Amino acid sequence: MTHSLMMSSELQLTPSFLTGDRVVLPPYGVGTVCGTCLRPVLGQDVPYYELSFPHTSARAFVPVSAPASAGLRPALTGGDLATLLERLTSGAVDLPRQWAARQRSVTELLVSGDPFALARLICELRRWNLERGLPDLDRQAYQKAIKLLQQEIGGLKGRLAVQVSAVLAAAQGEEGPGRASYTGLL
User: Fold this and answer.
1) What's the DSSP call for residue 8?
2) With bands split at pLDDT 50, 70 and 90, how would you rate the model's confidence at 119?
Protein backbone atom coordinates (compact mmCIF):
# COMPACT_ATOMS: atom_id res chain seq x y z
CA MET A 1 0.00 0.00 0.00
CA THR A 2 1.30 3.41 -0.79
CA HIS A 3 0.52 6.89 0.34
CA SER A 4 -1.16 9.33 -1.99
CA LEU A 5 -1.39 13.09 -2.01
CA MET A 6 -4.50 15.15 -1.40
CA MET A 7 -5.17 18.87 -1.23
CA SER A 8 -5.56 20.30 2.24
CA SER A 9 -7.70 23.29 3.09
CA GLU A 10 -4.50 25.40 3.11
CA LEU A 11 -3.93 24.60 -0.60
CA GLN A 12 -0.72 22.70 -0.05
CA LEU A 13 -0.02 19.07 -0.74
CA THR A 14 -0.50 16.92 2.35
CA PRO A 15 0.26 13.21 2.40
CA SER A 16 -2.67 10.94 3.04
CA PHE A 17 -2.15 7.44 4.27
CA LEU A 18 -3.89 4.13 3.73
CA THR A 19 -4.47 1.34 6.21
CA GLY A 20 -1.31 -0.78 6.33
CA ASP A 21 1.09 1.98 5.27
CA ARG A 22 4.43 2.08 7.08
CA VAL A 23 4.92 5.51 8.62
CA VAL A 24 7.27 7.30 10.99
CA LEU A 25 6.07 9.42 13.89
CA PRO A 26 8.80 10.94 16.03
CA PRO A 27 9.40 10.10 18.85
CA TYR A 28 7.59 6.76 18.51
CA GLY A 29 9.49 5.63 15.42
CA VAL A 30 8.20 3.33 12.70
CA GLY A 31 4.59 2.29 12.91
CA THR A 32 1.66 1.19 10.80
CA VAL A 33 -1.55 2.97 9.96
CA CYS A 34 -4.33 0.84 11.48
CA GLY A 35 -7.06 2.96 9.95
CA THR A 36 -8.92 6.14 10.75
CA CYS A 37 -11.32 6.99 13.53
CA LEU A 38 -13.36 9.94 14.72
CA ARG A 39 -12.43 11.59 17.99
CA PRO A 40 -14.33 14.38 19.70
CA VAL A 41 -12.57 17.77 19.72
CA LEU A 42 -14.46 20.79 21.05
CA GLY A 43 -17.80 19.10 20.45
CA GLN A 44 -17.02 18.01 16.87
CA ASP A 45 -15.93 14.63 15.56
CA VAL A 46 -12.53 15.02 13.89
CA PRO A 47 -10.94 12.26 11.75
CA TYR A 48 -7.62 10.90 13.00
CA TYR A 49 -5.17 8.30 11.73
CA GLU A 50 -4.75 5.54 14.27
CA LEU A 51 -1.18 4.27 14.39
CA SER A 52 0.29 1.22 16.07
CA PHE A 53 3.94 0.51 16.77
CA PRO A 54 5.56 -2.94 16.71
CA HIS A 55 6.84 -4.49 19.94
CA THR A 56 4.76 -2.11 22.06
CA SER A 57 1.16 -1.51 22.96
CA ALA A 58 1.54 2.19 22.13
CA ARG A 59 -1.07 3.79 19.89
CA ALA A 60 -0.99 7.30 18.51
CA PHE A 61 -3.65 9.42 16.88
CA VAL A 62 -2.75 12.04 14.28
CA PRO A 63 -5.22 14.45 12.66
CA VAL A 64 -5.98 13.45 9.08
CA SER A 65 -6.13 17.14 8.13
CA ALA A 66 -2.56 17.90 9.28
CA PRO A 67 -0.32 14.82 9.59
CA ALA A 68 2.84 16.82 8.86
CA SER A 69 2.21 19.14 11.79
CA ALA A 70 2.57 16.12 14.07
CA GLY A 71 5.70 15.00 12.21
CA LEU A 72 4.02 12.03 10.54
CA ARG A 73 5.70 10.97 7.31
CA PRO A 74 5.90 7.91 5.06
CA ALA A 75 8.58 5.41 6.07
CA LEU A 76 11.47 4.70 3.74
CA THR A 77 10.81 2.42 0.80
CA GLY A 78 13.14 0.25 -1.25
CA GLY A 79 13.37 3.06 -3.78
CA ASP A 80 14.98 5.33 -1.16
CA LEU A 81 17.78 2.95 -0.24
CA ALA A 82 20.29 3.83 -2.97
CA THR A 83 20.25 7.49 -1.91
CA LEU A 84 20.34 6.51 1.76
CA LEU A 85 23.35 4.24 1.18
CA GLU A 86 25.19 7.00 -0.69
CA ARG A 87 24.59 9.47 2.16
CA LEU A 88 25.55 6.88 4.73
CA THR A 89 28.89 6.13 3.10
CA SER A 90 29.91 9.52 1.69
CA GLY A 91 27.63 12.13 3.23
CA ALA A 92 28.83 15.01 5.32
CA VAL A 93 27.39 17.43 7.84
CA ASP A 94 29.15 20.64 8.77
CA LEU A 95 29.04 20.22 12.54
CA PRO A 96 30.34 22.99 14.79
CA ARG A 97 33.54 22.11 16.64
CA GLN A 98 32.34 23.93 19.77
CA TRP A 99 30.58 21.39 21.99
CA ALA A 100 27.35 23.26 22.92
CA ALA A 101 26.67 24.41 19.35
CA ARG A 102 27.40 20.91 18.03
CA GLN A 103 25.01 19.33 20.54
CA ARG A 104 22.24 21.71 19.43
CA SER A 105 22.83 20.83 15.77
CA VAL A 106 22.99 17.10 16.46
CA THR A 107 19.85 17.20 18.60
CA GLU A 108 17.96 19.03 15.83
CA LEU A 109 18.99 16.37 13.32
CA LEU A 110 17.96 13.54 15.63
CA VAL A 111 14.61 15.13 16.47
CA SER A 112 13.87 15.78 12.80
CA GLY A 113 13.87 12.05 12.12
CA ASP A 114 14.85 12.76 8.49
CA PRO A 115 16.53 9.48 7.45
CA PHE A 116 18.78 11.16 4.89
CA ALA A 117 19.98 13.76 7.42
CA LEU A 118 20.53 10.95 9.94
CA ALA A 119 22.60 9.04 7.36
CA ARG A 120 24.80 12.11 6.75
CA LEU A 121 25.16 12.57 10.53
CA ILE A 122 26.17 8.92 10.97
CA CYS A 123 28.74 9.25 8.19
CA GLU A 124 30.23 12.42 9.71
CA LEU A 125 30.32 11.11 13.29
CA ARG A 126 31.78 7.82 12.06
CA ARG A 127 34.56 9.76 10.36
CA TRP A 128 35.23 11.66 13.60
CA ASN A 129 35.12 8.42 15.58
CA LEU A 130 37.70 6.73 13.37
CA GLU A 131 39.98 9.79 13.37
CA ARG A 132 40.05 10.61 17.07
CA GLY A 133 37.23 8.85 18.91
CA LEU A 134 34.00 10.47 20.04
CA PRO A 135 33.24 12.16 23.33
CA ASP A 136 30.48 10.46 25.32
CA LEU A 137 27.53 12.65 24.20
CA ASP A 138 28.58 12.49 20.54
CA ARG A 139 28.90 8.70 20.84
CA GLN A 140 25.39 8.52 22.33
CA ALA A 141 24.01 10.62 19.47
CA TYR A 142 25.87 8.44 16.96
CA GLN A 143 24.36 5.26 18.44
CA LYS A 144 20.88 6.82 18.58
CA ALA A 145 21.06 7.85 14.90
CA ILE A 146 22.16 4.32 13.95
CA LYS A 147 19.28 2.76 15.91
CA LEU A 148 16.73 5.12 14.34
CA LEU A 149 17.86 4.16 10.83
CA GLN A 150 18.04 0.46 11.70
CA GLN A 151 14.45 0.60 12.90
CA GLU A 152 13.28 2.31 9.72
CA ILE A 153 14.96 -0.08 7.29
CA GLY A 154 14.06 -3.11 9.41
CA GLY A 155 10.96 -3.95 7.37
CA LEU A 156 12.60 -3.56 3.96
CA LYS A 157 13.90 -6.40 1.78
CA GLY A 158 16.40 -6.67 -1.04
CA ARG A 159 20.09 -6.29 -1.76
CA LEU A 160 20.26 -2.59 -0.86
CA ALA A 161 18.43 -3.16 2.44
CA VAL A 162 21.01 -5.83 3.31
CA GLN A 163 23.86 -3.44 2.38
CA VAL A 164 22.44 -0.58 4.45
CA SER A 165 21.91 -2.95 7.40
CA ALA A 166 25.50 -4.20 7.11
CA VAL A 167 26.90 -0.67 7.04
CA LEU A 168 24.85 0.31 10.10
CA ALA A 169 25.85 -2.85 11.99
CA ALA A 170 29.53 -2.24 11.21
CA ALA A 171 29.27 1.40 12.29
CA GLN A 172 27.55 0.38 15.49
CA GLY A 173 30.42 -1.96 16.38
CA GLU A 174 33.27 0.46 15.74
CA GLU A 175 35.00 1.72 18.85
CA GLY A 176 37.29 4.54 17.79
CA PRO A 177 40.56 5.42 16.07
CA GLY A 178 42.26 2.73 14.07
CA ARG A 179 39.19 0.55 13.49
CA ALA A 180 38.59 -0.92 10.02
CA SER A 181 36.41 0.86 7.45
CA TYR A 182 33.08 -0.57 6.33
CA THR A 183 33.60 0.40 2.68
CA GLY A 184 34.50 -3.23 1.95
CA LEU A 185 30.91 -4.19 2.74
CA LEU A 186 29.59 -2.40 -0.35
Assistant:
1) -
2) very high
